[in-house]
Automatic annotation (TrEMBL):
Entry annotated with the keyword Ubl conjugation: no
Name of the protein in question: indole-3-pyruvate monooxygenase
Organism this protein belongs to: Hordeum vulgare subsp. vulgare (Domesticated barley)
Coiled coil: none
Leading EC class: oxidoreductase
Catalytic function, reaction form: indole-3-pyruvate + NADPH + O2 + H(+) = (indol-3-yl)acetate + CO2 + NADP(+) + H2O
Pfam families: Pyr_redox_3 (PF13738)
Range of residues in the leader sequence: none
EC number: 1.14.13.168
Entry keywords, A to Z: Oxidoreductase
Domain of life: Eukaryota
InterPro entries membership: Auxin_biosynth/cation_transpt, FAD/NAD-bd_sf, Flavin_mOase
């Protein structure tokens, strides 16, 4: 049984940022990670052309900036290098290939008792911790919707986490399901590699340029969000025109307010909209069912596809292993309390990076958690 002060679950950006903030206060911690590396989502499950959609000033982790010559929008490879440098700089030593089987709060001993599985050695390792930080991410498990007949589909089915580039699929008929940033960017990548590309856009979205979002985030510090939204929507209308005739409807809630209330991002256009307008990428509504290689849409249209890519996001898996977490997480493994008070539960339980606020939200969570643990330890020893 290993006794630790803080146990951090997950060595993605949220876990690493929390570890760095704790080390600033010399608070000892152990960090466990089920994958064989840190930041596995960015390293192994992100497509090749991915860049951060927000400007670098909104994407730094605490106590370490990007290199001075870094571009405004950080590419995936540079982000991974930055995270590797971060691990080295703060001497973070995650225990890799260690998955958490269960964690329960012991009311008598006033501590968390955590059972982990060391996959390399096939052994069970138990920890007790005064504080437990859930940093396993909102993107822990792939989310593929239940569509009638999906199991009968004769082509390839891929989740966006396995998608790298369109070059291996040229000339194929490919359907992308999901119109968030990943779906729109994957559709663009497929089309530019010569695929016959279609995309399902079911719900209203906001389409913006990355410069507009940067402007919006800068103005949001000084102006009311509804005013910022009005400016962004007017500018987007000038740039993109009326997209409703191309099958893209706009959400009634403005992009900044939508982000603050639901965590849903506006879509940053990388060229997809231009290809939709030219008819190179075709837009469809909801799927009603799949039969063999035929996909039937709700408008009764039937089209044959060779491959379906699901860019339908991820879900948190914290609920599977975290018992006694009801003070902090709901049934979907996401925080019960609204941002910015979401990061703290009862009995020394915390979460980092679960508020759908990207890297800026992760940085704020990590600082809050470290400060809170420091003050609790101070009060105990005081």
């Amino acid at each position: 049984m290993d006794n630790v002060v803080v146990l951090i679950v997950g060595a993605g950006p949220a876990g690493l940022a929390t570890a760095a903030c704790l080390s600033q206060f010399s608070i000892p911690y152990v960090i466990v990670e089920r994958e064989s590396c840190s930041a596995s989502l960015w390293r192994n499950r992100a497509y090749d052309r991915l860049k951060l959609h927000l400007a670098k000033e909104f994407c730094e982790l605490p106590h370490m900036s990007y290199p001075v010559d870094a571009p405004t929008y950080i590419p995936k490879t540079m982000l991974v290098m930055y995270l590797d440098d971060y691990v080295e700089h703060f001497n973070i030593q995650p225990k890799y290939l260690t998955s958490v089987e269960s964690s329960t709060y012991d009311n008598e001993k006033k501590c968390w008792s955590i059972v982990t599985h060391d996959m390399a050695k096939s052994t069970i390792v138990k920890f007790t911790a005064k504080f437990l930080v859930v940093a396993s991410g909102e993107n822990s498990a792939e989310n593929i919707p239940m569509i009638p007949g999906l199991q009968s589909f004769s082509g390839d089915v891929l989740h966006s986490s396995s998608y790298k580039s369109g070059k291996s699929y040229s000339r194929m008929n490919v359907l992308v399901v999901g119109s968030g940033n990943s779906g729109m960017e994957i559709a663009y990548d497929l089309a530019t590699h010569g695929c016959n590309t279609s995309i399902v856009i079911r719900s209203p979205i906001h389409v913006m340029t990355k410069e507009l979002i940067r402007l919006g985030m800068t103005l949001a510090h000084r102006l009311p969000l509804n005013l910022v939204d009005n400016l962004l929507l007017m500018a987007a209308k000038l740039i993109f025109g009326d997209l409703s005739r191309h099958g893209i409807t706009t959400s009634t809630m403005g992009p900044m307010i939508l982000k603050s209330k639901t965590g849903r991002y506006a879509v940053i256009d990388v060229g997809t909209v231009g290809l939709i307008k030219k008819g190179i990428i075709k837009v469809h509504g909801s799927i009603s069912k799949i039969m063999g290689d035929m996909v039937e849409f709700q408008c009764s249209k039937k089209i044959s596809f060779d491959m379906i890519v699901f860019a339908t996001g991820y879900k948190s898996t914290a609920n599977i292993w975290l018992k006694n977490g009801e003070s902090m997480l709901n049934g979907n493994g996401l925080p019960i309390k609204e941002y910015p008070n979401h990061w703290k539960g009862e009995n020394g339980l915390y979460c980092a990076g679960l508020a759908r606020r990207g890297l800026a939200g992760i940085a704020a969570d990590a600082k809050n958690i470290a400060n809170d643990i420091k003050s609790v330890i101070g009060a105990m020893s005081g």
